[in-house]
Amino acid sequence: MTSERLEAFSDGVLAIIITIMVLELEAPKEYTLEAFFEIVPTFISYLVSFLYVSVYWVTHHQLFKIAEKINGKVLWSNLYLLFWLSVIPFTTGWIGQGNHHTDVVPVVLYGFVLLMSQLSFLLLRNSIIKIHEKKSPIAVHFNRLTMDFACVSIYVIGLSSAFLNTYISMALFLLVGLLKVVELNSISKRIQSIY
């Protein structure tokens, strides 16, 4: 089974996710700095969410660029990832409305969705690695257990710290996104050296 249809479908879903998120952004109703500062939490939540969706899109592209085969488990794992990514606009919008960025429940739900996105991507990646040889390029370049453990640990700390301070949680979620960008850059360089 080839991956072209899976990639095309995934690209479409991710494009819709970004479109929904940007439609949630509303311009201030007044032309004052105070009105602008009122929408800053909404913009920051959009920025962090856009970073995440972008990282998953690029990583997904690179993963399937060197995947030689897929199976039914990969298809279902991909849909599981897309489900969690599709919930990001909802949690982004909830955090961005009013002062919900300081409320525990929206921040915990946002972090939980990001954590589940991470875990579902790991499931997808491991499903692909299992149908390839252990020394295949996909297994060598995408099996990053130390970074995986670090990201999951930071998510758990971020979820726990939301009960103390939601700003710490959001900073930790942003940290994971930035770590993913660094990791993605490293993977990109290694893949380009091969292909």
From TrEMBL:
KW Membrane (keyword) present: yes
Protein's membrane topology: Multi-pass membrane protein
Name of the protein in question: DUF1211 domain-containing protein
The reaction(s) this protein catalyses: K(+)(in) = K(+)(out)
Location (main, coarse): membrane
Keywords: Ion channel, Ion transport, Membrane, Potassium, Potassium channel, Potassium transport, Transmembrane, Transmembrane helix, Transport
Keyword Cell membrane: no
Segments traversing the membrane: 7-23, 35-58, 79-95, 107-124, 145-164
Family: Belongs to the TMEM175 family.
Compartments (UniProt record): Membrane
Organism annotation: Flavivirga algicola
